[in-house]
Amino acid sequence: MKHLSSSFLFGLVCGILVTILVMGGLALAMVHERFDHRWGGRGCMGENGARPAYTSSIKVDDTKDISDAENCAVIAPLVKITAAQAEKAAQSAQNGKVQSTILENDGGNVVYSIILGSSGKEFEVKVDAGNAKVLQTSPLQDEEKEGTSEK
């Protein structure tokens, strides 16, 4: 067996490390893109603001300021129901056609936020991502509707 030079080994190790870092970044980007496509182009979101009045069966830390991609990577593995199951639960609580479905961290609660539209009115339904329980239903105000019309 021939002796390999230290500069060759150093280059090989650096190349392997760069490959691992790039592949990890690509995997995270693919997860984020998968959820962006699956959930109406809005992906996994972290909510900032007041605590919701409900508590979901899946709780996460919401005290850190992280990107949507990082949030998606944290909450996606915890989900126990599909988006389709959440949409069905939402439609059983509120009549309407699904406009968008978003998996999100809402004040530490992992929920699907589903926008339903019917007869010119839109409603937001929060569904527990762990057990498909409808946690909250509320009509959207005019300023909220502007952000939900695209798909």
Write a structural description.
The chain has 151 residues and is an alpha+beta fold. It has one domain: Nuclear Transport Factor 2, Chain: A (Roll), CATH 3.10.450. Helices cover 37% and strands 24% of the residues. The protein is built from four helices and five strands. Strands 1-2-3-4-5 form a five-stranded mixed β-sheet. Strand 3 (109-118) and strand 4 form a beta hairpin. The longest helix has 33 residues, at 6-38.
In a few lines, what is going on in this structure?
The protein has four helices and five strands. The chain is of the alpha+beta class and 151 residues long. The protein starts with 5 loop residues before the first helix and ends in a 6-residue tail after the last helix.
Helix content: 25-40%
The number of distinct structural domains comes to 1
Shape: elongated
**H/E topology pattern:** HEHHEEEEH
| CATH first level | Alpha Beta
* CA gyration radius, whole angstroms: 20 Å
Taking the alpha carbons of the first and last residues, their distance comes to 61 Å
Mean pLDDT: 77
* CATH architecture label: Roll
Low-confidence stretches: 29-43, 147-151
The counted number of beta strands is 5
Q: How would a crystallographer describe the biggest sheet? A: 5 strands, mixed
Number of helices: 4
User: Structural class of the helices, strands and pairings?
Assistant: alpha+beta
CATH topology: Nuclear Transport Factor 2, Chain: A
Give the spatial strand order of the biggest sheet.
Answer: 1-2-3-4-5
User: How much of the polypeptide forms β-strand, as a percent range?
Assistant: 15-25%
